[in-house]
What we know:
The chain has strands spanning 2-5, 8-12, 27-36, 44-49, 53-55, 73-75, 88-91, 96-102, 114-120, 130-136, 147-154, 158-165, 174-181, 186-191, 196-198, 214-220, 229-240.
Amino acid sequence: MVLLANGQVVSEAPGLELRHTVRGEAGAYRVEVRVPSSGGGDRSLPWIVGNPVYVVDPETTVVPPPPLPPAAVSPLSTTDLASQLRWSTESDATSEVEIDALGVESDGADGDSGFELRYRLGDDMDGGTYVAAVYPVEEGALARFDRVAFRAAADRPHRVSVQMRAGGLVGQPRWRTSAYIGPSVTEVQIPFGHVVSVEPSGSPLSFEPSQIDAILLVIDLTNSSPEAVGELTVRDVRLER
């Protein structure tokens, strides 16, 4: 078991229990259970990944705000005027992924178009196996918003990594959180304040929406098994504040 604070390992234990005392270190804490890599050596791979637990300064009084309707909404269109899919795909060399645009549902709601993603993960445990749906964002466009939202369903229970990438910065850093998507249609909201920096080494970077140029929905071996096959349906993706 490994405990991470803001993306950095702060404690680990080989047994069935891990204890760590937080002494004023506010931030996002997350637990992983790891298994040795099939390639041997000291490298281990995530097997179980917990959602973040947010620790705040004890001197700070945190009052969760009540849910409010969005003051501004910007639908992320699935198709452009030429009916070409705006969302694209990425994957490693061993995985397969396809994406198709969906039409507007029968209720005719604005911004209700979406896409269907079908995938098969590869079997390379050490090769960064993943598939992703990617939406390009104009640099600076996210600065006016504080969350991304969408409706989604899947052929079976999934935990999907929702990521924001700053491709214009050195190393293309990204920030992420996760969302559960099951067979029933679910409304998913990702507040920007809930994403954490994905930095394998060095200090985690502060999230700056104005630097983001891509939003990704990622399926990888963090929450799926090698050679997993699945389908996701995503509709009404939008930026809100």
